[in-house]
Amino acid sequence: MDRPTLAGGATRGARATGSPHGHGIHGEHVAFQRSCSEYAEAAQWSEPARGARLYRDAERAFECAESLAPDDGRIVFAHGHAAYMNRDVSVERALHLFDEALARAPDHAWARLYRAHCLHDLERWTEAADAYAAVPKGAFEGPRSWRMHLLVEQQALCLLRGGRREEALALFSKILGRYEAQPHLARWGDLRYADQAVDDLPELKEPLARAREALARTELGR
């Protein structure tokens, strides 16, 4: 579906005197952030040449939004998320933006999570494990609680790759036991990080098999 041009959306945001989320300058930068994020998302799903153009437009609009609200870490996080999701943007660039977001909003849980993802992707194992540990424990509740359980798997794999075997084994054992008791928690991750670790941690074979059986029973509606 075609969307209005980013320039038009940004202009409407800059002219806004209010919005459902606020008034004055706050309304302006919220409108910018929405336009930027929408266009960055559209860029992901477009054919490459058009996607590149859309992302360049989104980049300019993010920079404009950041100039309107230089202390707002939410906008910088949205910029970083757009960069992270774009295959043509380096992970290092996204990491820099998440660091910038956290400099403005140290308690921004999403920025902490995606910073950890960047370090994980870059195979900076010790830093990634520590970054996953720094995500606030109560950050994702309710329908999003699966993220905190998947995060434990991700942290454990980074610990293993970083040579901290016993810590990794303890975390994997803990989360697999939880999955066996509450298999619905494993649906989103499908146990893939435990799968990656099992050759190096043969102690996980039995608990992983039990967790997988429990998940299969849940998916069959038993």
- Tell me about the largest β-sheet: 2 strands, antiparallel
Helix percent reads: over 70%
Shape: elongated
Task: Please report the number of helical segments.
Answer: 11
Q: What class do helices, strands and sheet pairing give?
A: mainly alpha
Our Rg estimate from Cα atoms comes to 20 Å
Mean pLDDT: 79
Helix-strand topology string: HEEHHHHHHHHHH
- Largest sheet, spatial ordering of strands: 1-2
- Estimate what percentage of residues fall within beta strands: under 5%
Integer tally of domains:
2
In angstroms, what separates the terminal alpha carbons? Answer: 40 Å
Report on the architecture of this protein.
This protein is mostly helical and 222 residues long. Helix content is 70%, strand content 2%. It has helices spanning 6-15, 24-45, 48-68, 73-85, 91-104, 109-121, 125-133, 146-161, 165-181, 192-197, 205-219, and strands at 18-19, 22-23. The chain has a two-stranded antiparallel sheet.
